[in-house]
Structure formats: C-alpha cells, structure tokens
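Students often ask what a holo structure prediction actually looks like on paper. The answer is less mysterious than it sounds. You provide the chain, you provide the ligand, and the output is a string of discrete structure tokens encoding the 3D arrangement of the protein together with 2-oxoglutaric acid.
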Amino acid sequence: MSANLDLFDSPRELQALAVPDADLRFAHGFYTRDEAATLMAALLEETPWRQERIRIAGEMRWQPRLTSWHGDLGADYAYSGIRLDPHPWTPTLSRMRRDIEAATGHAYNSVLLNLYRDGNDSVGWHADDEALLGPTPAIASLSLGQTRLFRLRHKRRLHAPVDIQLTDGSLLLMAGSTQRHWEHTVPKERGERGPRINLTFRLIAARP
Ligand SMILES: O=C(O)CCC(=O)C(=O)O
Ligand SMILES: [Fe+2]
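The corresponding structure tokens follow.
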C-alpha cells in the first residue's frame, strides 16, 4: 500500500491514505534519520521497559515485546487485563508530544511505548477501541528503528488487508472510525531484524 506512495517531496507532511471506513494519514519522514536516531537512543536509555504478563483467551502469557506507559496524572488505563499507572512525561517524550500535536491537530495525554527487540516480537490483532478512548479516537503512531509491517484488516467487510511499512521516523495518524471498523497487527518477521520502538500517543478520558 505505502510502497508506491509518491510522498518524497514532503516527507514531514501527513498524507491521507485512501482506505474505506477509516481516516488514516501517513508521513514517511516525520523525523529525519538523524532526529530519529537521536530519539531512539534516548528512549532506549531512558525508558523503564517492562515485559508484562497478559491474559489471552484465558491464559496468562508474556507479552512478546517490552512496554512502558507514560501520561498525565489521572490518565490511568486498563489494557488486556493489565492496569497501568503512567510514568511521567520525560523531556524527550514531551518534545515528541508537542511535535505530534502540532502536526496532527489533536491533543494527547498519554503515550504507550512498545519495544520490538527483534523479529520475534510482535503485537497481535486488535483495535484500540477501549471505551476510555471515546468512539472516534485519534491515535498518533510514531515509529523508530527497524522498519516493520503494519497490517490492517476490516472487521466485517470483505476487503483486502492494507499493508503499511512503518519506516524509521514515520508517523501514522489513525482517526475517525478507523478503530471501529479495522483491526491491526505487527506480525512476527523471519530473518535478521533490529530493534524498533513504536509510540502511540492517545487521549484518555477522565474516569467518571
Ligand atoms: O507497533 C505498532 O506499530 C503498533 C502498536 C499498537 O498497535 C499498539 O500499541 O496498540
Ligand atoms: Fe494498536
């Protein structure tokens, strides 16, 4: 899907992807290679990475990636049966939030970091459709390091899967009804794969 997009004139600009029942925008070079390398090194070093145990189909398993949850106080979040209390914003994460809020026109009060150590790390099929995100959440997904495949599939309609290569420094905005109609995954990949960090910036509603 993304392979032949002719975006190379304005790598920082978000460009709409023509996918039905979704609002997807992609900038393949939101950060330059140098900026991305600096951010990746800082995040690898500064983040309190953890491997969580989650319940999948009734069984407790180790998540196949490392995570860290950061956010404003009060932005607490439950995810696949894990309750996550957010760590505070670091200067690195605050700077990224500012950049991404300015580019996307949405506000975020939390960010989930995922570290895919190699091709064996992955995230299974899901939609980010928790009630606390509201019916039409804007989720901004920033990728650093190893390019990995991000695959979307429609929940109901017969539609070919949509594949996007999430390159180093790229930004994918998922908004509108995307989470209502589509699921996504980052599958395991064979062969030599280096580390990748993905950050999804989200706006969590206050608990009533
Ligand atoms: O790593 C990615 O690109 C996606 C991560 C994801 O879907 C999530 O954290 O909800
Ligand atoms: Fe997700």
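The chain has a mean pLDDT of 91.
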